[in-house]
């Protein structure tokens, strides 16, 4: 059996955004059964979990007979490859898919996360206003470069949706959550096209259902803090 870790609960701004949605999405695309192993803040800090994920983050992938994995990018690629879905067999196309896959995780995600951290984690409007000029222009530059590179193509590589589009649209969810995509109409259309898939809808609906069924107390934040 395959098990994926996810949080019991996250604040509303993060519901549907937590990176286990990527792993659920590719597993749904592959048609592989899996179970979700729910974590709270105490579990996150435990030595048992750190042995699986040294940084205490989600997601991880555990599978009978295989070494456990962490890093959503590594997990999604591994599943796509083994299931034979969303990665073209042609080596030239495959290399292009890999290139865009890394571009999503390396070139776009960090820039967008900086904005997201400013908007969602800084304590007040003054702190946000001070931070925005340091992070927003760079993220906007990246989005505009991506839109230019995409041009009028439907997908990043070739004629069909690939794992590069899965990862890029998952990263663009960060921009969408910040209301940044509407300034890039072609990217917005591309983004909507990528998410228009049953495997994606189920991934996010399942994550949100779990979060809705729990609350902050289930995360045992105080106990985790008390434990040091
Ligand atoms: N690069 C990692 C990032 C994982 C990550 O940041 N996970 C977040 C949830 S989306 C998390 O677990 N945050 C809690 C923490 O860092 O303590 C990946 O893609 O798997």
Annotation keywords:
single chain; 228 residues; alpha+beta; Glutaredoxin; Glutathione S-transferase Yfyf (Class Pi), Chain A, domain 2; 4-stranded mixed beta sheet; 10 helices; globular; Glutathione S-transferase; Glutathione_S-Trfase; GST_C; Glutathione_S-Trfase_N; transferase activity
Strand content: 5-15%
Could you give the order of strands across the largest sheet?
Answer: 2-1-3-4
The CATH superfamily of the largest domain turns out to be: Glutaredoxin
The total number of structural domains is: 2
Stretches where pLDDT is under 50 for at least 5 consecutive residues are: none
Mean pLDDT over all positions? 97
The gyration radius over C-alpha positions equals 18 Å
What structural category characterises the helix and strand content? alpha+beta
**Count of extended strands:** 4
Helical proportion? 55-70%
Shape: globular
- The N- to C-terminal Cα distance equals 34 Å
What string gives the helices and strands in order?
A: EHEHHEEHHHHHHH
CATH architecture of the largest domain: 3-Layer(aba) Sandwich
What binds here, in terms of ligands, is: glutathione
| CATH overall fold name of the largest domain | Glutaredoxin
- At the first level of CATH, the class of the largest domain is Alpha Beta
Biggest sheet character: 4 strands, mixed
